[in-house]
Amino acid sequence: MTTTDDAVAQGQEHFDALIAEDSRVEPRDWMPADYRKTLTRQVSQHAHSEIIGMQPEANWITRAPSLKRKSILMAKVQDEAGHGLYLYSAAETLGTPRSELNEQLLSGRAKYSSIFNYPARTWADMGAIGWLVDGAAICNQVPLCRASYGPYGRAMVRICKEESFHQRQGWEILYELSHGTEAQKKMAQEAVNRFYGPALQMFGPPDGDSPNSQQSMAWNIKRFSNDELRQRFVDMIVPQAEALGLSLPDPDLAWNEERGHYDYGELDWEEFMSVIKGRGPCSVQRMKRRREAHENGAWVREAAAAYAERQAMASATHQNESSTDRPRPAAQLIGATA
Ligand code: FAQ
Prior knowledge:
338 residues, mainly alpha, two-stranded antiparallel ribbon, 2 strands, 2% strand, globular, binds Phenylacetyl coenzyme A
């Protein structure tokens, strides 16, 4: 056995022990190449989803019905940007630079959540997105706070707190509408009708068609299967819909005493497959907008890079001068960088 083989065997043993005792794997730990690959895929796709997910709601900021609603929506959209940034940072600790992850999104090689390829047609959609989309996101993401990869799990803790606020604001929008005029109630119902199926599909394909689940669960990345989480979500939203006075658009939805869960009807998986292949109702528009935003932000990236370079040079000069014990100019002593 070579020294490299020994190191790999030792690394694998340490990794297996961490997973077996349900501990955390940290960036400097040895990890199998496939573990790194699957996490980079999931975490970066999650980051892309947060960033693309800003679009349907950002589109409503100027049209929100009051100043209060505008400021709440603006804060929510900013939160999503923050989530994207934590997640890109977590993904980068696995070794792929953010520029490359971004390139995977812009070139269409990386996926982002199917849900953000649907249009937000009315103000009630802001309620349906908050209640159903953020609600599904919480159901899916609370178990991810215990994901075996440390930076991902830690990022998820903060994200989940913010998602809970998002879900409440969506619920509150829908509650007001569903207790408002007939036209408002109709608008709320139509929004729920449009977002219900796509929200259930956020959990991914049925377990039998989910190629990644089994291994991700064995590695303690995913703690529950796609169908388990989907069921948990359905069980959660049925009583919530009743409290809202709205119905869920599924004739097969019924309490199953034996299972202790709600049964629900088959989802349109053909549509799902088509959406994740980039043929959703807004797929082209979302990617076009993202590419434009990236190009428009080039000057900010260039300015930030130039500033970082100047800071690094100033700090290197400062260290050289300190090491030769020469008296330093007054500007450096007070930390001026201009
Ligand atoms: N959309 O084998 P599985 C949010 C792909 S954030 C598109 O089951 P896995 C916050 C999957 O990538 C929403 N693609 O895969 C917010 C794989 O393709 P690949 C995002 C999907 O990874 C709210 C293939 O299908 N959340 O909403 C989808 O084990 C409001 C086979 O699937 C996350 O990313 C889908 N729905 O399970 C923001 C959570 N489902 O990569 C703004 C973290 C599956 O092999 C406003 N991610 N695919 O080519 C996860 O939990 C998992 O990655 C799953 C998929 C559950 C999404």
